[in-house]
Amino acid sequence: MKIALLTRYGDLAASTRQRFQQYRPYLEASDFELVSRPLLDDTYLERLYTGGRRSAAQLARRYVDRVLWLLSRPDVDLIWLNYDLFPFMPGLFESLARIPGKPIVFDYDDAIFHNYDLHSKRLVRRVLGKKLHSTIGGAELVLAGNAYLADYARPLNARVEIVPTVVDAWVYRPAPPANNAETAPRVGWIGTPSTWSEYLVKLMPALMPTLEQADAHLAVMGAGRDAVAQPRLDIEPWSEAAEVPFLQSLDIGIMPLTDTPWARGKCGYKLIQYMACGLPVVASPVGVNSEIVEHGVNGFLARTDDEWREALTTLLHDPALRHRMGAAGRRKVEEQYSLQVWGPRVASLLLDAASRCRHT
Hints:
Rossmann fold; 2 domains; six-stranded parallel sheet; glycosyltransferase activity
């Protein structure tokens, strides 16, 4: 059985790797053949992250390529769609994915509908505010990364499954004890240039004095060019190969968020990464963060600056507590947020979706 992966970006994008490509071994073991058809390649995403110039002509060509591919009646059995087919195009274009006999599985791990229904321009809200309704409603199955996203889809489709964004627990592991030398504690964050500027920068006035008092450092990965190293702030570029070693070098993982509709749609992936590597976490109680973090068990939830200071101070001065919370977080990932648990489940969900369509 052949599945077309219609992702927005290539493998450089976290959503493509986490929601699609990491399931490849489980799907291939179930006799699925996967065909990747990203809308935009890694070069486009690199320019997006670095603030480089993006070509409108290149973007138009990619849209046309996707239209032509869909019109060719491709030889696939199922379409696994990441987000919308054509961002910021009218919903009519989304109907191109409705090919007789080729069911659609719609997969999303961000509140992309807020790109439209909460857009600053009234015209966009009016024309595109409900553009995802037909795609979600016409899908054989919807895979939503958390309850907030699932709640949006359920009035439109009866077949909605919550599939968290998970990690391979055999890859994301705690550091060997020999690597945990007695050095200054490292509080860590991993993300993208946009989440750096949107969330972490706002916490810095409370965060940095707290670290200084505890003789600790802040280490960040993936913040982009706007992040500048300074005393007690270590900046590292993101790469897939460096991700796990970076996480294993940390003592505490953090995930600040502001309580907005967009943030409520996030799937807490960095928390899952931290916990898989045996780290205690501190996070804002926004959206799924409040499900992943059990306050006082595998980390702390912190809403105000004072709560952030208190949580970090407690962890920075208590290595034994860090170890206990880190171990609890690791267990939770193994049981609820690991590829080993979700790989067979996702393969089964896709097989069922394809089988239902064949028998109707």
